[in-house]
Amino acid sequence: MSPTPLAHLSTNRNMYKNKKVLLIAPAYNEARKIEEVAKKVPYDVVDTFLVVSDGSTDDTAEAAEAEGARVLRHEKRMGVGMSIRDGYKIAREEGFDIAVVIAGNNKDDPREITRLLDPICDDDCDFVMGSRYLDGGRFGGDMPTYRVFATKYVHPFIVNLFCKRGVTESSNGYRALKVSVLEDPRVNLEQKWLKDYQLEMYILMRILMLDFKCTEVPVSKIYPPREIGNTKMTPIVGWWKMVYPIVLVGLGLRK
User: Fold this and answer.
1) 174 vs 221: CA distance, rounded Å
2) Per-residue pLDDT reduced to its tens digit, 161-216
């Protein structure tokens, strides 16, 4: 199903270091938290803040618009991967230079976005991954202990096994890339199996295994209180969606 038309536009004409930046936040029923994210977006750096409301049944879209975001509405829930893909599609069609993905549930800090942008703008990196485990990064809030173990040890171990890159974190959704990367035919986001968390891991694996210039930067990952909901990922099923793409791409079974 095609997304509904864009409802709102907030665009800054002052590009950051001569780069046009799109910030993408996939969000499903995050009205309370997306409002806080939007309030912190630095519009002297970000040209457009795009919220993809993925079939939300609450006021996610309206809350984002009220704080200056541009909103893309999915009529039904399609998955975080599809939401990111639609954001990337807009980045390509509208001539953005850099696309940054951020959590829609207020776990990431938009004010740290220049940490992700500078390696692209200054060092010509193609892809920049945020890491809470690098010096200068931090994590906290109601982050479950099992998530610490999985994100610090399990996921990076499997990725490094295939890619030989030595990343400190592989599951962090706060990341930036040159939009030109999406034009490379070796990175195919149109595959039907990339509808949820699979897309994020697929992109990471393809970029790490190909000849792109990549780096990590320290970022914060602070989980909101559990009583207001701190993650949409379901145990076991959600983890599996992030693990099996690593193996498939790592073994060359998906490209």
Assistant:
1) 9
2) 999 989 999 999 999 999 999 999 999 999 999 999 999 999 999 999 999 999 99
Quote the number of domains for the chain.
Answer: 1
In whole angstroms, how far apart are CA 164 and each of 129, 146, 208, 245?
A: 16, 25, 9, 17
One-letter amino acid for residue 105 of the chain: N
Query: What are the E-state strand segments in the chain?
Result: 21-27, 48-54, 70-74, 98-101, 127-131, 138-141, 175-178, 214-218, 220-223
Distance of CA 154 to the CA centre of its chain: 20
Answer whether residue 10 is part of any domain. no
Sheet holding 175-178, edge to edge: 70-74, 48-54, 21-27, 98-101, 175-178, 127-131, 214-218
In the numeric block, which tokens belong to residue 21? 């930046």
For residue 217, being part of any structural domain is answered with yes
Q: Which two tokens stand for residue 84?
A: 């990111």
Query: Residue 218 forms beta bridges with which residues?
Result: 131
Identify whether 13 is part of a domain.
no
Q: Is residue 14 part of a domain?
A: no
Q: What share of the chain is helix, strand, coil (3-state, %, to 5)?
A: 40, 20, 45
Q: Which domain holds residue 81?
A: 21-250
pLDDT in tens, 122-142: 999 999 999 999 999 999 888
Instruction: Give the pLDDT confidence score for residue 231 in this predicted structure.
Output: 59
CATH number for position 162:
3.90.550.10
**pLDDT at residue 121 above 80?**
yes
